[in-house]
C-alpha cells in the first residue's frame, strides 16, 4: 500500500517528503484554509515541487460539471503531477467522465459507500477516496467499507485505486492496508506515530549502551 500525506502545510510536506516513504499529497479546501493559503496556485506549485514524483490532489469547489471541468483543466496547467479532486456527486461524476476521456487524473472524494465507489470507478476515477474516520465518528465501520470497495474493484478489474482517507490514527493505516486499500492518505502527525514503538526505542538504547560499554572496556570488536 502506498502512503500519501494529507495536508496543505508546506513544512509538514517537506518533512514528509524527506522521510522517503511518501508517494503523493492530498489537499482539500479545509486543509488549504487551515494553512491560510489564499493563493492556491502558488501553494500547489510549491507542493508539486516538494513531491515531484507523486500525484498532488487539488479539489474542485464549484457545483456543476462544466465549472468543475474548467477548474480541473486550470489545475493541470499548474504542474504535470496534479490529480483533480472531485466530490462524489452527479455533476462530479460527469466531470470525472470528461477528465477520464481526456487523460486527466482524478481523485473522487467524500466517498462513504460501496455504491458511490462503484459509480466513481465506472466514471473512470483514477483514485477513489473512501473516508474512514468520518464513518467511524458516527459509529459505523469505515474500514468495512474500504474492504468492500477493494473487493469490488479487484473482482471487476477496475483500474481505479482505492485510497483510504480521513485517517485518524496508525491503526486505521494498518487496517486499511489489510483491507486491500492501494493507498492511504495520512495526516503528518499520524505518519510520525507510525514509526514509534516502545520496544524499538528500548532496543536501540540497549544496543547503544552495550556498544558504548564495549568501547569503554577497549575490547577489539570480534
Ligand atoms: O483530505 C481528505 C480526507 O482525508 C480528509 O478527511 O475527515 O480528516 O477531514 P478528514
Question: Outline, from the CA principal axes?
Answer: globular
Helix and strand run: EHEHHEHEHEHEHHEHEHH
Number of strands: 8
Average predicted local confidence, pLDDT:
97
Which structural class should the secondary elements be placed in? alpha/beta
Q: Unreliable stretches, pLDDT < 50, 5 or more residues? A: none
Share in β-strands: 15-25%
Ligand list: SN-glycerol-3-phosphate
Sequence of strands across the biggest β-sheet: 1-2-3-4-5-6-7-8
Main sheet attributes: strand count, strand direction, barrel closure: 8 strands, parallel, barrel
Question: Whole-Å distance between the termini?
Answer: 40 Å
Helix content: 40-55%
Rg from alpha-carbon coordinates = 20 Å
Separate helix tally: 11
Amino acid at each position: 500500500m502506498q502512503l500519501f500525506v494529507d495536508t496543505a502545510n508546506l513544512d509538514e510536506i517537506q518533512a514528509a517528503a524527506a522521510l522517503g516513504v511518501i508517494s503523493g499529497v492530498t489537499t482539500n479546501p479545509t486543509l488549504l484554509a487551515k494553512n491560510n493559503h489564499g493563493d492556491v496556485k502558488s501553494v500547489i506549485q510549491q507542493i508539486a515541487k516538494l513531491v515531484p514524483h507523486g500525484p498532488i490532489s487539488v479539489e474542485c469547489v464549484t457545483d456543476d460539471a462544466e465549472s468543475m471541468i474548467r477548474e480541473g483543466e486550470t489545475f493541470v496547467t499548474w504542474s504535470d503531477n496534479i490529480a483533480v479532486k472531485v466530490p462524489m456527486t452527479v455533476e462530479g461524476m460527469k466531470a470525472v467522465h470528461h477528465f477520464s476521456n481526456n487523460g486527466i487524473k482524478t481523485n473522487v472524494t467524500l466517498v462513504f459507500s460501496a455504491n458511490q465507489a462503484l459509480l466513481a470507478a465506472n466514471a473512470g476515477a483514477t483514485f477513489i477516496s473512501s473516508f474512514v474516520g468520518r464513518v467511524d465518528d458516527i459509529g459505523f465501520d469505515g474500514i468495512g467499507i474500504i474492504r468492500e470497495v477493494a473487493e469490488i474493484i479487484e473482482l471487476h478489474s477496475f483500474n481505479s485505486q482505492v485510497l483510504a482517507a480521513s485517517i485518524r490514527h496508525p491503526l486505521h493505516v494498518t487496517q486499511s492496508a489489510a483491507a486491500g486499500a492501494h493507498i492511504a492518505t495520512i495526516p503528518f502527525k499520524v505518519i510520525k506515530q507510525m514509526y514509534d514503538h516502545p520496544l524499538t526505542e528500548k532496543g536501540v538504547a540497549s544496543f547503544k549502551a552495550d556498544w558504548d560499554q564495549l568501547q569503554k572496556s577497549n575490547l577489539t570488536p570480534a
